[in-house]
Amino acid sequence: MTATVGARRDALIEALTAAGLSPESDPRRIAEYSYDASNYRVAPAAVVFPHTEEEVAAALAACHRFGVPATARGGGTSMAGNAIGSGLVLDLSRHLNRVREVDEAARVVTAEAGVVLTELRAAVHAATDSRLTFAPDPSSQSRACLGGAIGNDACGNHSVRHGRTADHVEALRLVTADGLRLTATRRGIEATDPRDAAATARAEHLTTELRDLATDHLAAIRTELGRIPRQVSGYHLRHLLPEEGFDVARALVGSEGTCAIVTAARMRIVPRAARTGLLVVGYADVVDAARDVTAILPHRPTAVEGVDEVIVATMRSRRGADSVAELPDGRAWLFIELDDDEAATPGTDTASGLEARMAALADQLVRTGHAIRALVVTDPVARADLWRVREDGAGLSSRLTDPVTGRTIESWPGWEDSAVPPERLADYLAEFRELLDQHGLTGVMYGHFGAGCMHIRITFDLRSDAGRAVFRAFCTDAARLAVRHGGSLSGEHGDGRARSELLPVMYSPEMLGAFDRFARLWDPAGLLAPGGLTATRPLDVDLALDGIPDRRPPRDLGLLTSAGGAHPVQACIGVGRCRTSTGGVMCPSFRATGDEKDSTRGRARVLQEVVRGTLPVDDPAVEESLELCLACKACSSDCPTGVDMAAFKSEALHRRYRGRPRPRVHYSLGLLPVWLRATGRIAGPLNAVMSTRLGRAAARVGGVAADRELPRFASAAELRTELARAPDSVWAVRRGAATPASAAATRTSAEVVLFLDSFTRGLRPAVAGAAARVLGGSHTSVACSSGHCCGLTHITTGRLDAARRTLSETVRHLDGIRGPDGEEVPVVVVEPSCAAALRGDLPRLLAETSDAELARRVAARVRSAAEHLGVLAASGRAPAWPGGAPPDRVTVQTHCHEYATFGNRVQRATLTALGVGSVREATGCCGLAGDFGFTAGHEFVADAVAQQTLAPTLRADPEAPVLADGFSCATQVAHLAARDPRVGRRTGRHLFELLDPDPTDPTPRRQP
User: Fold this and answer.
1) If DSSP codes are grouped into helix, strand and coil, which group holds residue 249?
2) Which candidate, 779, 721, 776, 826, places its Cα nearest to that of 997?
């Protein structure tokens, strides 16, 4: 940074601070906002979070005064680089996010630019009793904001029916580059406040100049713009034509923040279909699928979306085989949605008409089209799963699993948004594949087939000079190909840094001049969002992967970095699913605070700077970024790219604290399994002391939060008593010696291994006994292993050397327990977080040791309790319910680690298979998350996370039994029950306890 630029930045920050805007320019915040979902990285000077339109105006006036660029940002999900900039970044999503009014009679909604699209839609549904909806639904809708949809002219899955965002704009509230407040309408532009003389004068000036612009370029605008449904590239000047009514509002849609910053909008809302049907059609490849589009469109579909087999294979590999519903035969699929559209079948009952239309279309595509097979999907859960595959396409396709080899393949955006006329899509894709071959690249194709818009992720090498040269050459050739087929470089993502340089391939010099004139009328100084449509940067500069070391630091265990340069932490590409407020579990801390720093993406961006070398791992920025990460692992499943922030945090802590003093809680709760070896012998006196003021003070010294009590410690006698009541089929294994759990004879082989983890042994002996009795009644020989540990707390606190030693000892022990003929048998782990550690962390941490093969072998045998009981139920060997009948309903809190590692449906599927009538799930983190909720300073987030799903779910049915296999989850249930009478005086019980044929106490005592 030059002295002049630095001085301007400092002056800007001082002015913003004086205006009460609280700019942030610390290294952590800069790292978080240097990226979006594109290939690019541009560090801003500062970031602000405006609360009002007036604050936006004050910020832009200051930028204009000091000549500092400004870029508006919402969810930060731009794939074209439109949400990053070198000057001031204004994040509108944090505070400027209200839905102001829903007018059902006028069919419009007014909302601020930072509102998330799904939240906007939910507000419309709530206000109209679901009669109306907001139509634009890009795949990023669960975190993308209204301002971004307007900036890019986003479309979405249902654009074949509802068009682009521009088709729904009625008016835009704007702030100009110098801080004036204007309103653009369908008929012109005016001052937002009629009393503002400067704004009024600016509106009059713009009106005159924009009319002159349209007149001067009338022929070019009419012939070059608006040729296909998805022509998003460039500026939408056709809306300024006389026949369009001088529609300034819609002319600004798609301007990518280069003309003015949109602070609010008045948008059309449309009738919502009462019923929809989904038809999934299988094809040999995407080209065949594209050839059927013209046959599908006359059936008035609401959506025609496509994916290929690699995306489906990746979803199944990452989230389990049941994460994708059954698909018809094929290697590519179209998802065709029809609705109860009376216009399509006039005079018929809409319900029967919908079924008939779906059947007719399916028959036509198989009989006379290119389809292999068609399948009508009626199950709502299966339909939701299939749509999620499509919505997660950008993330899933960035880290692909080859369906044949299982190998992971990286792919990147850059040419992911081209659009052509639908009737030319098949030929375009066929030639596109030839172009990929010519450049030695592979592309994964998915997208909006019905609108001719393809989202193609490509295996670019953006790390090397040679790879970047191929990137430039390919994108240039691809632009020529799209234009040759009558297409557009961008169909909804915008041009931005990725494609603006290529606009001369698509447009005449006259049109390019008109574009530049339009932008300069609004922003003469060129301060708004430079680098994309204005002050265009070359498409191969500012690349995020350029300049990253391809080495692995000596103390890194391979969780953050890789010797080959494809560092694991770079799996985060910014798609932002961690910023959602509903659905899945990720990211509980972001949902609690709404701050980018507490999202998985924000943390990954900081750690990417560590890998880049711009931040040391022991920098306070890294510590602050990771502080509120619950290490819940939900991101490893919910993130489309498979980011495992818990693993990254573990590695960062390992490198930060190796050989250094640690936080107090690392010694108290972080070494809990070690302390539990001794607490069994002194449990009585210890519990008595811990219940006193002195004991509570000691806990505070150990870093435990003031509102938390340590759990009751179990005595060794309690555990022995529980295991003594196990059937003779259960026998104990302790460090190689086999002895009966009861008085039965010594066994030498097992049908299954019951692994009693440290938490179960030391804190929940009743669960240990229940597990032994349930499994002992279902198997002829159960080896009960109760002397080893999974190393979980070592892993979560970054003691990875200790974790590896612990895991090596455990894996050798477990590998020695086999079936009668030496075969490998299941290892059932009672505590789900420990099961997840042995399934996932074990092979990863021992990958480069002499125990690597043992680790892989043992990890494949590990099952959680729910998974194993589900297997028994599926084979007709389900344990009987005490009393003969299952409960009619159960409330379930699935442990986050089990959710992430064993599948998000494992608990529900098992309970259903066991005959439970109704399962109500608290789909979210409980907030305790091991030692997180116990740690001083985490109280607010832990409580806020508990209120996201667990507490409301408990309150919804205060009488239902609560299933909480995780010790943390059960403890949090008890914590809530003690403080909220609406929750009910209930305890979280383990599934083994619910199935226990001989419970210790029919009414188990409440957790302390």
Assistant:
1) helix
2) 776
CB-based contact 680:716 (threshold 8 Å) = yes
Helix (H) or strand (E) holding 843: helix 842-845
Q: How many CB atoms lie within 10 A of CB 355?
A: 17
Cβ-based neighbours of 459, under 8 Å, separated by 6 or more: 409, 410, 411, 412, 441, 442, 443
Quote the tokens at residue 895: 């442990």
- DSSP letters for 302-351: SEEEEEEHHHHHHHHHHH-GGGS----SSSEEEEEEEE--TTTSTTS-HH
Give Cβ neighbours of residue 433 (< 8 Å, ≥ 6 apart): 287, 443
Q: Are 862 and 835 in contact (CB under 8 A)?
A: yes
Residue-level pLDDT at 60: 98
Q: What is each CA distance from 582 to 119, 590, 762, 920, in whole angstroms?
A: 10, 11, 36, 16
Match 């080893």 to its residue by tokens.
788
Report long-range pairs for 186-190 (Cβ below 8 Å, ≥24 apart).
186/245, 186/247, 186/248, 186/249, 186/250, 187/245, 187/246, 187/247, 187/248, 188/246, 188/248, 189/248
Of residues 417, 514, 534, the one with CA closest to residue 85? 534
Strand, coil or helix: what is 909?
Answer: helix
Say if CB 814 and CB 842 are below 8 A apart: no
Give the closest residue to 89 by CA, choosing from 151, 43, 143, 142: 43
Please name the residues in contact with 608: beta carbons below 8 A apart, sequence gap of 6 or more.
Answer: 31, 35, 544, 567, 569, 570, 572
- What does the longest C-alpha to C-alpha distance in the chain come to? 98
Beta carbons of 447 and 381 less than 8 angstroms apart: no
Distances (CA, A) of 161 to 279, 337, 487, 556, 882: 16, 11, 20, 51, 55
| H helix runs in 406-539, sequence order | 425-438, 465-484, 496-499, 503-506, 509-522
Instruction: Read off the pLDDT of residues 719-730 as tens digits, 9 standing for 90 and up.
Output: 999 999 999 999
Q: Which of 220, 782, 274 minimizes the C-alpha distance to 515?
A: 220
Place of tokens 């975190």: 143
**Mutual orientation of helices 465-484 and 425-438 as an angle, nearest 10°?**
160
Token pair 């383990």: residue? 990
Ramachandran assignment for 396, one of left (phi > 0), alpha (psi -120 to 50 degrees), beta (any other): alpha
Backbone CA torsion sign across 772, 924, 904, 874? positive
The per-residue pLDDT for range 380-418, each reduced to its tens digit, is 878 887 887 777 765 677 777 666 666 778 899 999 999
Task: Compute how many other C-beta atoms are within 10 angstroms of the C-beta atom of residue 939.
Answer: 16
For the CA atoms of 441, 445, 448, 452, what is the dihedral angle to 10 degrees?
50
Question: In sequence order, what are the residues at sequence separation of 6 or more whose Cβ sits closer than 8 angstroms to the Cβ of residue 924?
Answer: 585, 588, 945, 948, 949, 950
- Cα distances from 570 to residues 29, 543, 545, in angstroms, run 18, 13, 9
7: three-class secondary structure by DSSP:
helix
What would the two tokens of residue 612 be?
């880049």
Contact 842, 858 (CB under 8 A): yes
How far is Cα 254 from Cα 151, in angstroms, rounded to an integer? 5
End-to-end CA distance of the chain: 57
Is residue 783 within 8 A of residue 750, CB to CB? The reply is: yes
d(CA 640, CA 658): 32
- Strands 730-734, 737-740: pairing is antiparallel
* pLDDT digit string, tens, across residues 206-227: 999 999 999 999 999 999 999 9
Sheet holding 918-921, edge to edge: 918-921, 889-892, 962-963, 988-989
**Residue given tokens 């070690």 in the structure block:** 674
Residues 6 or more apart in contact with residue 541 via CB below 8 angstroms: none
The answer to whether the pTM exceeds 0.85 is yes
Residues in the chain: 1008
Question: What pLDDT, in 10s, does the model give residues 223-243?
Answer: 999 999 999 999 999 999 999
Contact between 13 and 87 under an 8 Å Cβ cutoff? The reply is no
Instruction: Quickly count: other Cβ atoms within 10 Å of residue 962's Cβ.
Output: 27
